[in-house]
Amino acid sequence: MARAGLTAERVTIAGADLADEVGLDQVTMSQVARQLGVKDASLYTHVRSLEDLRGRIALLAADEKTILIAEATAGRAGKDALVAFANAWREYAHQHPGRYMATQTPVRIDPELAAEAPGPRRAIELTYGMLRGYRLAEPDLTDAVRLLRSTFHGFVALEAAGGFAHERSPQHSWVRALDALHTLLEHWPPSREGDSP
Fold first, then answer.
1. What is the 3-state secondary structure (H, E, C) of the chain?
2. Residues with Cβ within 8 Å of residue 111, at least 6 apart in sequence
3. Interhelix angle for 8-22 vs 97-104, to 10°?
4. Residue 191 and residue 150: Cα distance in Å, rounded?
5. Model-level pTM?
6. pLDDT tens-digit profile, the chain (197 residues)
């Protein structure tokens, strides 16, 4: 019998907490059930499958990360906004590694849940809004978004995996990377004739 008060939200949070502890790919429905003190079958009243749970974790994490970024960038523009945005991204990845990976891993998400979730939509708005401070327009905006995401995710993924073994602190490299991104965004190369759309 399910514990009183068990909901899809509680199951999702338990799964997200577990993902932060053991890694997203190590989360199982049985482990989540044990963490909640219920039988496995009780979870399926609230979450259809492990894939559904991972989709819900991704939406939860997108919302949390977006709130952190929105708070960090409020009232900022240009380089200040870029640095605040990047630092909030990295902070979330450090504090919630399993949740963070859910936002970076392709997973099927229930279209109804996705339509109601503000996180992914707000993340796009915040990113494009911050980049408009650099006076970029399409298709350069999309290219710049992809560059930032690749840089931020690549850095935090390598950092989490212990990929920066050099004696120079990763923090110094992070600061320099943000300086370089700011310079590039201020001097964004024009699109070349014949670039694919």
1. CCCCCCCHHHHHHHHHHHHHHHCHHHCCHHHHHHHHCCCHHHHCCCCCCHHHHHHHHHHHHHHHHHHHHHHHHCCCCHHHHHHHHHHHHHHHHHHCHHHHHHHHCCCCCCHHHHHHCHHHHHHHHHHHHHHHCCCCCCCHHHHHHHHHHHHHHHHHHHHHCCCCCCCCCHHHHHHHHHHHHHHHHHCCCCCCCCCCC
2. none
3. 100
4. 20
5. 0.90
6. 345 589 999 999 999 999 999 999 999 999 999 999 999 999 999 999 999 999 999 999 999 999 999 999 999 999 999 999 999 999 999 999 999 999 998 888 888 887 888 888 898 899 999 998 899 989 999 999 999 999 999 999 999 999 998 889 999 999 999 999 999 999 999 877 556 55
Structure tokens given for 49: 């499958």
The residue to which tokens 């989490």 are assigned: 160
- Amino acid at position 169, single letter: S
